[in-house]
C-alpha cells in the first residue's frame, strides 16, 4: 500500500538542503487557482499588497530592478526578469525573504492566505513559463537527515511550493548545504518541466533549476552508498488533475506532447 507525501520547499537561500523537508503526509493537495485572473502589473505594483507582510520590500524590489539588464534574456520584460530575481534575493536577517514567506504560504492549507501574493504570482509565473522547459534532466536536492523511511518505492510525492535544485551534485557537498559528514539524504529528481533561472538570478554563479508548485513525482528506488548517506530516486509525472493553473491562456506548464 502506498501513501502520498507532500514535500516542502526550502526556507533558506541555500535552499538546496534543509533540515525539514517533509511538511506532512496526505493524499490531497489544494490546487493553486485564482491568481491568473489578476492583471499583469509592473513589479512594484504587483508587490504592493505584500508591503505589510515583507520587511523593507520596496528596497529589495528596487535592488532586483537595478540588477536587471535593459534587455533581459529569454524574451522577458524587465519586470518579469526582476520578479524572478526578487524571488532569489536573501533578505538581511532576521527578516524572512520573499521566497521563504511565499513558499510557507503555499504550504498552508488555507488558500485565502495566498491571496496577497496573487499579483506577484501572476508576474512571477508569467515570467517562468516564458522560460523554456529544461529537457528531461536529473537535478538534486538534499536534506540533512535520513528521511528514507518516508519515501518507499512507488510512493507518490507532491511538491507543494517552489523548489530550488541544482544540476551540479558537487555543489551539495559544500558545508553550507549538506557537507560530507553526518546523516544526510540526496534526492535525485528526474524532471520534465523545470525552469533554469540562473540568467535571472541574484546569484549569477548558481546553476539553479526551479521546480514549480504542484509537481508530482513517484519514488523509483533508494540506496545507501555510504553508512550515513541515503539517495532517493524520483521521477516526475504529469498529474491528471490541475494542481497549478497556468498564468494565462495558452501558457504551457509542461512540454508539448510529441
TrEMBL record:
E.C. code: 2.4.2.31
Record flagged with keyword Metal-binding: no
SUPFAM superfamilies per the UniProt record, alphabetical: ADP-ribosylation
UniProt-listed InterPro entries: ART
Catalytic reaction equation(s): L-arginyl-[protein] + NAD(+) = N(omega)-(ADP-D-ribosyl)-L-arginyl-[protein] + nicotinamide + H(+)
Molecular function terms, GO-annotated: NAD+-protein-arginine ADP-ribosyltransferase activity; nucleotidyltransferase activity
Enzyme class: transferase
Pfam families named in the record: ART
Domain of life: Eukaryota
Alphabetical keyword list: Glycosyltransferase, NAD, NADP, Nucleotidyltransferase, Transferase
Family: Belongs to the Arg-specific ADP-ribosyltransferase family.
Protein name, per record: NAD(P)(+)--arginine ADP-ribosyltransferase
Organism: Adineta steineri
